[in-house]
């Protein structure tokens, strides 16, 4: 039997899981929309990681922890 003539590579869209062809315009995404959604996820992920530090209550906790430690450290 001849080798497979399947030259078109397929990949699952990271956003919706749809099959995307390797030569697709928006590869590896199935569409420009999915690409933007994925970028949005990244932006949200980064924001979620950094936002708790901006929370006054967390800063207070960190300050309390640093206070007991920072005493002899700053000397
Ligand atoms: Zn998609």
Topology (SSEs and partners):
Elements: E1 10-12, E2 19-21, H1 32-54, H2 56-73
Antiparallel strand pairs: 1-2
Zinc ion is lined by residues 13, 15-16, 18, 29-31, 34.
Give a quick set of tags describing it:
single chain; 75 residues; mainly alpha; two-stranded antiparallel ribbon; binds zinc ion
Give an overview of the whole structure.
The protein is mainly alpha-helical and 75 residues long. The protein has a domain at 32-68. The chain has two helices and two strands; from the N terminus they run ββαα. The chain has helices at 32-54, 56-73, and strands at 10-12, 19-21. A two-stranded antiparallel sheet has the order 1-2. The protein is elongated and about 80 Å long. It starts with 9 loop residues before the first strand and ends with a helix. The chain binds zinc ion.
The largest sheet, given as strand count, sense and whether it forms a barrel, is: 2 strands, antiparallel
The set of bound ligands, ions and cofactors reads: zinc ion
From the N-terminal CA to the C-terminal CA, the straight-line distance is: 79 Å
What strand order characterises the main sheet?
A: 1-2
Quick one: overall form? Answer: elongated
Helix amount:
40-55%
What's the average pLDDT? 76
Could you name the ranges where pLDDT drops below 50 across 5 or more consecutive residues?
A: none
């Amino acid at each position: 039997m001849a080798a497979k003539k399947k030259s078109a590579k397929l990949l699952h869209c990271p956003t919706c899981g749809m099959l995307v062809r390797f030569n697709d315009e928006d590869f590896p995404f199935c569409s420009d929309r999915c690409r933007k959604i994925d970028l949005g996820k990244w932006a949200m992920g980064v924001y979620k990681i950094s936002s708790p530090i901006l929370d006054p209550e967390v800063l207070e906790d960190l300050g309390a922890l640093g206070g007991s430690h920072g005493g002899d450290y700053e000397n």
